[in-house]
């Protein structure tokens, strides 16, 4: 059982886009104000370099992550670093779940206990992990195109319902430090593509993962740029600075005539599917890395005990919405930067001095012989 190119694209897109769509414009507006959308465009070249680094590591490795750590760092160091990634993926999963809880609690269903949100989403994600990665891919490959097109459409409708382009001024009035900081924030979100170091080995040819990642970047940048521009034009800088979820507040302005209103509830339904994927994939990675590090027969039985850890951690990591914002603007970008950029960069530097695998087909983890267990 292997992934198609389109399924891998959908998995990567749903991994980076839903959270960034809701969170990145809010973060950048505090850094670049009216020019926050420029900080997204400047991430194109660093994003291509990041994708190129991931693809070069894949090409120079005969085994998927985390076993490639043994290959390039030695077995002892590789296993130690691999074990560190298990709590990292759990933290990413718990943080994404908590962000979803805060959004639903503040915007959609404020009177509902948070245990309901946690239980429902973890139950659905648990079922997806138990049925396998390929079945998860079959679900998201339907939701990704629908969610992307509807998100673009509703942003355009909201944009022209309250169109004030003068709010983009002064154009380009930014300092280099703020622009660099905004670019780094965007790259930290794009670094969530790091699971491609594992998922690429589910393809028939792992070398094709590079072009799939570039397609993700090509669609991700316009979506987040449009969201940032729409927030500034429709809401203005001062109101956007005071909003926790300015993207959703902007979408509430969308209406067609006097008959079609409250279209935001449709986006909420689609966004929940996106969060489902954004929670499930790091959770799958935590289970899969555990299986590979400890040489277990299967990863599915790890899902049940880890569900309790993820649910409990999503509650205790933040006491209120303010701490979620602090995590979003301070701690989480550093976690992404260290484990999804810095450590892969060290592996990239090591692979520069290594030859290409000569007999990669003899490795059972190689996609040309046998896919990882799904």
Task: Report what the structure shows.
The protein is an all-alpha fold and about 375 residues long. Mean pLDDT is about 85; it is low at about 360-374. The radius of gyration is 20 Å and the shape is globular. The longest helix has about 35 residues, at about 75-110. The chain has helices at about 5-30, 40, 45-60, 65-75, 75-110, 115-130, 135-160, 175-190, 195-200, 210-235, 235-240, 245-250, 265-295, 305-315, 320-350. The protein is built from 15 helices and no strands. About 70% of the residues lie in helices and about 0% in strands. α1 packs across α7 (about 135-160), α4 packs across α5 (about 75-110) and α6 (about 115-130) packs across α13 (about 265-295).
* Element-by-element helix/strand order: HHHHHHHHHHHHHHH
How many helical elements?
15
- Using only C-alpha atoms, the radius of gyration works out to 20 Å
Low-pLDDT stretches are 359-374
Q: Structural class, from helix and strand content?
A: mainly alpha
Query: Average pLDDT across residues?
Result: 86
- Main sheet? none
Distance between the termini: 7 Å
Note the overall shape.
Answer: globular
Query: How many strand segments?
Result: 0
Beta-strand percent range: under 5%
Proportion in helices: over 70%
């Amino acid at each position: 059982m292997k992934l198609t190119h389109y399924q891998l694209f959908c998995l990567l897109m749903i991994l980076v886009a839903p959270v960034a769509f809701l969170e990145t414009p809010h973060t950048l507006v505090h850094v670049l104000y009216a020019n926050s959308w420029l900080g997204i465009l400047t991430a194109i070249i660093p994003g291509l370099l990041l994708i190129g680094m991931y693809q070069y590591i894949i090409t120079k490795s005969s085994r998927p992550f985390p076993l490639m750590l043994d290959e390039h760092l030695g077995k002892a160091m590789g296993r130690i670093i691999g074990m560190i990634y298990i709590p990292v993926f759990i933290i990413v999963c718990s943080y994404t779940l908590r962000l979803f809880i805060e959004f639903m609690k503040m915007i959609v269903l404020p009177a509902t206990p948070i245990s309901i949100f946690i239980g429902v989403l973890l139950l659905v994600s648990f079922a997806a992990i138990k049925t396998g990665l390929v079945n998860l891919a079959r679900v998201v490959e339907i939701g990704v195109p629908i969610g992307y097109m509807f998100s673009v459409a509703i942003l355009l409708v909201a944009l022209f319902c309250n169109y004030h382009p003068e709010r983009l001024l002064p154009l380009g009035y930014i300092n280099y430090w703020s622009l660099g900081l905004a670019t780094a924030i965007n790259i930290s979100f794009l670094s969530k593509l790091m699971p491609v170091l594992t998922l690429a080995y589910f393809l028939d040819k792992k070398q094709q993962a590079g072009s799939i990642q570039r397609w993700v970047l090509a669609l991700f940048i316009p979506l987040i740029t449009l969201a940032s521009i729409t927030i500034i034009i429709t809401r203005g800088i001062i109101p956007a600075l005071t909003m926790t979820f300015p993207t959703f507040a902007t979408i509430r302005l969308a209406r067609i005539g006097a008959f079609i209103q409250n279209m935001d509830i449709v986006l909420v339904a689609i966004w929940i599917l996106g969060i489902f994927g954004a929670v499930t994939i790091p959770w799958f990675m935590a289970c899969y890395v555990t299986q590979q590090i400890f040489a277990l027969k299967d990863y599915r039985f790890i899902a049940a005990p880890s569900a309790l850890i993820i649910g409990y951690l999503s509650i205790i990591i933040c006491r209120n919405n303010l701490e979620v914002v602090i995590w979003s603007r301070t701690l989480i970008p550093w976690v992404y930067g260290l484990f999804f950029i810095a450590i892969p960069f060290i592996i990239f530097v090591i692979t520069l001095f290594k030859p290409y695998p000569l007999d990669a087909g003899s490795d059972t983890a190689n996609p040309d012989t046998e896919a990882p267990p799904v």
